[in-house]
Write a structure and sequence with these properties.
Elements: H1 4-22, H2 25-33, H3 38-49, H4 54-84, E1 87-99, E2 109-112, E3 117-122, E4 135-146, H5 157-167, E5 172-178, E6 181-187, H6 188-199
Antiparallel strand pairs: 1-3, 1-4, 2-3, 4-6, 5-6
Helix pairs in contact: 1-4, 2-4, 3-4
Length: 202
């Protein structure tokens, strides 16, 4: 005889575990890399969700880990495929301009935030004075990636790029991703290191 109540509880625990894990990116990353002690994590999550036995929670964690490992392999291959087809170039003499009002200036790329406009510009093309309430950071370098169209529907591309740079302690001054263009503005001292890093994948 099938114990439907028991099956329902197991499904409920599995769903709770899956939802809890997927709300924690760092935990997902650890599971994808296979560096988690399942028993210790099961004890922690069992106390947190307050449902099921530790063994049931552990079994759910193992299933989620297997799913995430498969997802990671597929996602990374898609991202690496895009990077292999991307072109990367550097442009110096870049300025980032942040203004509360729209400006009539030439720009490489712009973005509107909730309370300001951000312009990434070639500073050699700027003419005349800017308003006093405009913030300008000059003498930066733009790392520009030109990628194939499928980058627009590939999750994780931006996270992969920023993770690579963060792993080398490269600070991003400004980052704008628009259509197939990814523009990363860096301090000049980090530019060549970032360029060489991304060239390893292209």
């Amino acid at each position: 005889m099938v114990d439907n109540g028991s099956d329902k509880t197991k499904r409920s625990v599995a769903q709770l575990v899956r939802e809890t894990i997927r709300m924690r990116p760092s935990l997902m990353d650890a599971l994808k890399m296979g560096i988690v002690n399942f028993s210790a994590l099961a004890r922690m999550l069992q106390r947190e969700i307050g449902e099921g036995s530790t063994e049931a929670v552990k079994a759910a964690i193992i299933r989620v880990s297997e799913e995430l490992t498969d997802e990671r392999a597929l996602q990374e291959e898609r991202i690496l495929s895009i990077l292999r087809e991307s072109k990367v170039r550097l442009q110096d003499k870049i300025a980032v301009i942040i203004s509360p009002e729209m400006l009539d200036i030439p720009y490489l790329v712009t973005a509107y935030l909730t309370d300001s406009y951000v312009y990434i510009v070639d500073q050699t093309e700027l003419k005349g004075e800017l308003p006093d309430d405009v913030q300008v950071t000059s003498n930066l370098v733009a790392l520009i990636l030109l990628s194939p169209p499928r980058v627009e529907v590939t999750p994780g591309f931006v996270a992969f790029i920023t993770g690579l740079l963060a792993g080398r302690e490269i600070n991003i001054v400004e980052f704008i991703s628009c259509s197939t263009n990814t523009v990363i503005v860096l301090d000049s001292r980090d530019a060549l290191k970032a360029f060489s890093l991304l060239q390893n994948y292209t």
